[in-house]
Amino acid sequence: MRCSTACRALRLRSGERDHLSHLAGGLPPPPGRVTMSIRPSVLRLMARFTDVSAMLLNAKGDVLAWNPLAATLLGDFSAWPPPRRNLIWQRFLGEGPGRIVADDNERDRLDAALVADLRAAAGRYPEDPGIRRLIADLRAGSPQFEQLRRRRQVTIRRADRKRIAHPRARGAGARLRCAARPRRRPST
To answer: Best exposed site among 18, 33, 91, 151 by fewest CB in 10 Å?
Structure first.
């Protein structure tokens, strides 16, 4: 088990995560890199969402946590191995969340938004090896990703709308809300 996986399972705070990483002989994630940790307060909040689906992603599209309703609506994310629990990788190289329904124009818009989101994350975290590796894999394996990447769009979506095709519901609509955590200003 990787140290970051254990930290998430134990719901450790950042200081506790750093200490466990040190004890395990590793280093905590350096500043300027996308974190895989979730604050315990966020996990507790998600656990209280019993009447709405919720999913937590990091800046590069990794699915970090989800509640039972999200799994019911979109599919079981635990079926994907942890390194493949990335929505962007799944869309362009994997099986993806196949319940999202879109015509060609809508699919192009949604795909372009994913690529633009990843470009924005790469700009915010230029030293993150996970983002660089993800982009390299996508460029090598998906001509569609590369074509969209060449558009050079940068976006941070705050909200979007997608239509979900669920096996038990006909054409159910779902609204995707994205809450971006603001970057902290360095203290002077």
So the answer is: 151
Q: Over the stretch 104-149, which tens digit does the pLDDT of each residue have?
A: 777 888 889 899 989 988 888 888 999 999 999 999 999 999 999 9
DSSP letters, 114-170, are HHHHHHHHHHH-TT-HHHHHHHHHHHHH-HHHHHHHTT------SEEEEEE-BTTBS
Q: Provide the 3-class DSSP secondary structure of residue 175.
A: strand
Contact 154, 116 (CB under 8 A): yes
What whole-number distance in Å separates Cα of residue 24 and Cα of residue 167? 44
Own/partner long-range contacts of 96-104 (Cβ < 8 Å, ≥24 apart): 99/73, 99/74, 99/75, 99/164, 99/165, 99/166, 100/162, 100/163, 100/164, 100/165, 101/163, 101/164, 101/165, 101/171, 102/162, 102/163
Note the pLDDT tens digit of each residue in 10-29: 776 656 666 666 566 665 55
CA 33 to chain centre: 14
Instruction: Tell me the pTM.
Output: 0.72
